[in-house]
Design goal:
mainly beta, 2 domains, four-stranded antiparallel sheet, 1 helix, 3% helix, elongated, Beta/gamma_crystallin, G_crystallin-like, repeat, structural constituent of eye lens
């Protein structure tokens, strides 16, 4: 079973709650904006700063997190239900899927190649992808979901062709 256990203090201390399905508003369960550590079993979870899966997001793959990057800032949780095996995304140099293209199937640092800061659109064939503004998983980031066809980064992501790093979420091993 896929699950996330969240704790109000670092190092898995204090009050805790376990979830096995999406939680659109942690405040309704008296656990909003208080998560400082967590454990994930199975598929990844996405934690959002705002209720209803909005605002800044953080992805947590299977494992233990004795401290989270932004403690006390999560208001909703979403389980990734998608098939994460054999990921694939196609990047395009220009908006509307035009210009040179690059098919990516694994974590890639674009800073070392032609496509650094030149991607303007994409199509996700398989998997869920984290897209980062800077090399080494740095800067602003967003998620790209299976089947997504994002025609222009500028108005839709405010990335303005500044994609430098991307990686697929890793599948978990549920019990």
């Amino acid at each position: 079973m896929n699950r996330i256990t969240v704790y109000e203090r670092a190092n898995f201390e204090g009050l805790s709650r376990e979830f096995t399905c999406d939680v659109p508003d942690l405040h309704e369960l008296d656990f909003g904006d208080c998560i400082a550590s967590l454990k994930v079993v199975g598929q990844p979870w996405i934690a959002y700063a705002d209720p209803k899966y909005e605002g800044e997001l953080h992805a947590f793959e299977e494992g233990e997190y004795p401290s989270v990057g932004r403690p006390n800032s999560f208001s909703s949780l979403r389980l990734v239900h998608h098939d994460l095996w054999d990921p694939q995304i196609t990047l395009y140099e220009y908006p509307n899927f035009q210009g040179a293209c690059k098919v990516v199937t694994e974590e890639t640092n674009l800073a070392y190649g032609y496509f650094n800061d030149r991607v303007a659109s994409h199509v996700v064939q398989r998997g869920v992808w984290l897209l980062y503004q800077h090399p080494g998983r740095g800067g602003w980031h967003c998620l790209a979901w299976p089947g997504e066809r994002l025609a222009d980064y500028k108005p839709e992501l405010n990335f303005q062709a500044r994609l430098s790093h991307l990686r697929p979420l890793r599948p978990g091993q549920p019990l």
